[in-house]
Amino acid sequence: MTNSIDVVVVGAGPVGLLAAIELTLGGAQVLVLERLASPSQAMKALSFGPLAGEALLRRGMRTAIDDAQQRSAHAMQAFTQQTGADLGVRASKFNGHFAGLSLIRRDAQVDPDRRPRHVDQPSLEAMLGARARALGIEVRREHEVTGIEQFDNGVEVSWASPARPRRVRAAYLIGCDGGRSTVRKLRDFAFPGTAPTLTFYQASADVDHPERLLPIGWNRTERGVFCYGPVPGRLFMLDFSGPPEDRQAPVTREEIEAVLRRASGQEVRVKALHTASRWADNTRLVDTYQQQRVFLAGDAAHVHSPFGGQGLSLGLLDAANLGWKLAAVIRGDMPESLLSTYTAERRPVAEAVLANTRAQVAILRPDPQSGAMRDLIARLMDFDDVNRFIGEMMTGVSTRYDLGQRQTSHPDVGRLAGDWQLFDGTRLFDAMQDGRAVLLDGTADRRASQHVQSTTTQVRCLSMPEGPSWLLRPDACIAWCSEPDCTDELAGLGEALRRWIAA
Q1: Interhelix angle 62-83/50-57, nearest 10 degrees
Q2: What pairs with residue 437 in β-bridges?
Q3: Identical topology for domains 5-98+116-193+284-346 and 428-500
Q4: What 3 state SS string does 308-368 have?
Q5: Closest C-alpha to 54, from 115, 97, 144, 132
Q6: Which SUPFAM superfamilies does the record cross-reference, listed alphabetically (predicted)?
Q7: Where are the domains of the chain?
Q8: Domain spanning 196-281 has what CATH number?
Q9: CB-CB contact of 145 with 182 (8 Å)
Q10: Cα Rg for the chain, rounded, in angstroms?
Q11: DSSP states of 190-210 as a string?
């Protein structure tokens, strides 16, 4: 049987949609299968990190992000009017939290403009869905994967749907189907880690005395942790009495009220419950993101405590890393060996996130020992170097991939470039919307552009004022930059092109 499609993506959440967008821009034919009949409206993430936001900017969603952030600002303004909490002062000075310690200062960061994006997950899914439709990507809902069989040259995927069971043959499969991933289970990926110890709740509810739940931010008590805001009705709580007996059981108004009263110690009533969900802090990571022609991305590959809001960004950057690589292999520009760099680059990033989420849970526990450690961390964050380290860890901007190439002496090689303003006033990411790599050419006679154009058509060459030159992969990872003290200003460029763009 011949392959009838290039890639099947399982899961139409943010990670699956971005993976499909990346693949389509790279020329691959993609089919997305989603178990749910419609996008989830459950309250989940309220924001995502700067690197994830930049991945969306590179794919033409600047206006959609700005509009969604404006809606978030209006919701926060409504919260201010409802409660009298002054969010503006804190927002102007701080840039996130560690274990509820909202002490990450913008003035301590190397690049304070690389900030989280205040866009809730339903809005994010809507903008990704619109972009996918504009690209003609087929998303089939109410399609639940039931079988996966691998062959030397492809993957056969079976599913059940309201119409009838069907199957398709594809060259590759990407599982973006969440923490209880069917793809991961069917292909028996090893998923080691630690068992859950507590229960997280997030809800949208009407509370009779919201003023009793202030101040805004994370409040740690002798009985748990709770947060009200920063939009009306939003509740987040940690219950340290143990993991949920049945995580899939419906979350009731009575359950949310009991946990809220216990954690806050306040006489408050939940008058109405609009949405609610519960999680645990089970922390697991697959040993590899690839099993022959099957890949995992997002929560299918890693689960952890949601504290710190890093999971969504982590998954989106998985998609941004894998999509262009898989498309390059499908086009025939690169060998399949390129795909091994996906696990090599992304798994260490996930390991670091899992470690810091475990640390955050440890200093949130309501015992005296955890409290003493928490107080010590808070004092250490007064030091600029510590504050910068924690801030860059939480936002991910310190990420640097090991590119495994000889020309890596420059400290920026392997890092993800920000949305630089180019010399003509345009933005770098606006020039990357077609999914191609970019050369920023600072050579006097445009020798770098001539060299690149003689090698591949998959790089957009942009002229810069005379100075350093930069080669950026489609995911904005800096693959090469010229060394100012090197006699050959193009040294290493050919190797970088062969390794990442055109073998």
Answers
A1: 140
A2: 459
A3: no
A4: CCCHHHHHHHHHHHHHHHHHHHHHCCCCHHHHHHHHHHHHHHHHHHHHHHHHHHHCCCCCH
A5: 115
A6: FAD/NAD(P)-binding domain
A7: 5-98+116-193+284-346, 196-281, 428-500
A8: 3.30.70.2450
A9: yes
A10: 23
A11: ---EE---SEEEEEEEEES-G
Let me know the angle formed at the C-alpha of 188 by 184 and 194, rounded to the nearest 5 degrees.
75
Whole-prediction pTM: 0.94
**Distance of alpha carbon 467 from the chain centroid:** 33
What is the DSSP code (8-state) at residue 219? E
- Between CA 55 and CA 473 the distance in angstroms is 12
Amino acid (1-letter code) at residue 309:
G
Q: How many CA atoms within 13 Å lie on the side-chain side of 152?
A: 0
Listed residue (208, 220, 356) closest to 281, CA to CA = 356
Given the DSSP bridges, would you call strands 294-296 and 166-175 parallel, antiparallel or unpaired? Answer: parallel
Q: 268 and 212 in contact (C-beta within 8 Å)? A: yes
State the distance between the two ends of the chain, measured CA to CA, in whole angstroms.
Answer: 29
Mean pLDDT of the chain: 92
H helix intervals, 211-310: 253-264
User: CA distances (Å), 492 to each of 361, 363, 410, 469, in order?
Assistant: 44, 46, 11, 12
Tell me how crowded residue 217 is: count the other CB atoms within 10 A of its CB: 17
**Residue ranges in 236-306 assigned as alpha helix (H):** 253-264
Rounded to an integer, the average pLDDT of 129-141 is 97
Residue scoring higher pLDDT (23 or 424): 23
Q: Is the pLDDT of residue 493 over 60?
A: yes
Are 359 and 373 in contact by the 8 Å Cβ rule? The answer is no
* Segment 348-356 mean pLDDT: 97
pLDDT tens digit sequence for 311-340: 999 999 999 999 999 999 999 999 999 999
Strand partners, 168: 157
Query: What pLDDT score was predicted for residue 385?
Result: 96
Residue 22 has φ and ψ, to the nearest 5°, of -60, -45
List phi, psi (to 5°) of 12. -110, 30
Q: State the architecture of 5-98+116-193+284-346 in CATH terms.
A: 3-Layer(bba) Sandwich (3.50)
Instruction: Please name the residue ranges forming H helices in 363-478.
Output: 368-380, 384-395, 447-453
What topology is assigned to 428-500 in CATH? Glutaredoxin (3.40.30)
Average pLDDT over residues 43-54: 88
CA distances from 20 to 129, 176, 480 (A): 10, 10, 27
Q: Do 33 and 138 touch, CB atoms closer than 8 A?
A: no
Best mean pLDDT range from 84-88, 217-221, 388-392: 388-392
pLDDT band, residue 151 (cuts 50/70/90) = very high
